[in-house]
Write a structure and sequence with these properties.
Layout: E1 9-13, H1 19-33, H2 40-47, H3 53-62, E2 64-70, E3 73-82, E4 85-91, H4 100-114, E5 119-125, H5 129-134, E6 138-147, E7 150-160
Antiparallel strand pairs: 1-2, 2-3, 3-4, 5-7, 6-7
Keywords: Transferase
Protein name: GCN5-related N-acetyltransferase
Pfam families: Acetyltransf_10 (PF13673)
């Protein structure tokens, strides 16, 4: 436990060479936070996306990727795949319930709205469904996504964003 009661949360763009660290956050988040909704084989198929570090780094670089830090150390990341679609939003298990996911989601919504998006969609895992639902995202459709030999379920959710004149 840190001597600092509430380490400062901050956001910044992803830095070059940071993909391996973000891949570790991705893996830890999936393996520790989704076990109630997904089988181990499904989790392992899901994290395989990060096993090719070069491809994972390229995906993150192709997205608008932001990193949440706590006391200066990365504890989560989020990205926009397009101006109107969330690509990633993952928080390290040690930083859950500390406002990291909310900080990332708020920032992604503001970036999307600032770029003129009228709405923002996300393919939310069953583990993340309630988080997005509480933020005003409405379920649009259920999906089955193949990862290797496994099928994973998620839900496409969508939220209407405020117009650019109301973004602060």
């Amino acid at each position: 436990m840190s001597a600092e009661a509430n380490p400062q949360l901050a956001l910044r763009p992803m830095l070059p060479g940071e993909a391996p660290l973000l891949a570790e956050i991705f893996r830890a988040s999936i393996m520790e936070l989704t076990q109630d909704e997904y089988e181990v084989e499904q989790q392992e198929a899901w994290i395989a996306d990060a096993n090719n570090e070069e491809a994972f780094a390229k995906t993150l670089a192709d997205h608008t990727t932001i990193v949440a830090t706590m006391g200066g150390s990365p504890v989560g990341f989020g990205s926009l795949e397009t101006d109107s679609k969330v690509g990633f939003l993952y928080v390290h298990p040690a930083a859950v319930e500390r406002g990291v996911g909310t900080l990332l989601a708020d920032a992604l919504e503001k970036i999307a709205a600032g770029r003129g998006a009228k709405s923002l969609s996300v393919d939310a895992s069953d583990s993340a469904f309630d988080f997005f639902n509480k933020r005003g995202y409405a379920a649009q459709q259920r999906n089955s996504v193949r990862r290797g030999d496994e099928w994973l379920s998620n839900t496409t959710m969508k939220k209407t964003l405020p117009g650019p004149e109301t973004v602060q």
